[in-house]
Amino acid sequence: xxxxxxxxxxxxxxxxxxxxxxxxxxxxxxxxxxxxxxxxxxxxxxxxxxxxxxxxxxxxxxxxxxxxxxxxxxxxxxxxxxxxxxxxxxxxxxxxxxxxxxxxxxxxxxxxxxxxxxxxxxxxxxxxxxxxxxxxxxxxxxxxxxxxxxxxxxxxxx
Length: 158
Description:
Blueprint: H1 4-12, E1 16-17, E2 19-25, E3 28-34, E4 37-41, E5 46-52, H2 56-63, E6 66-71, H3 77-83, H4 91-95, E7 100-102, E8 109-111, E9 116-128, E10 131-144, E11 151-153, E12 156-157
């Protein structure tokens, strides 16, 4: 049996990009920091995210097929921490004064000044232990910049 802390420590040594996933539901906007993010396919363009099955974000993603993912820049470290909070955070409150706009396809909040922003539509949900993998088709690339991406390694942002 692998001890959970050993598994977590081993994975913490692997550098990963930091994203914020946002989804609009009615009059509210939900968002959370997600570092389980990977490309899946070029044709059609697809990616996947892994979300805690117990999170409110997961609950909303089961109901709403359209969402957005922003790859954060090194200048957005504080945003990563704010969106990592548990509960039912309102994305608009967590953004503070950070520039943002609505996606053309998903209507989710797009956080500006990041590295890239992609709008997605869920195609497949896969239960995976204590997480759910959402495989999605990218329906719009909102922007791409030359900013340095925020990464997380050894439990620290860099």
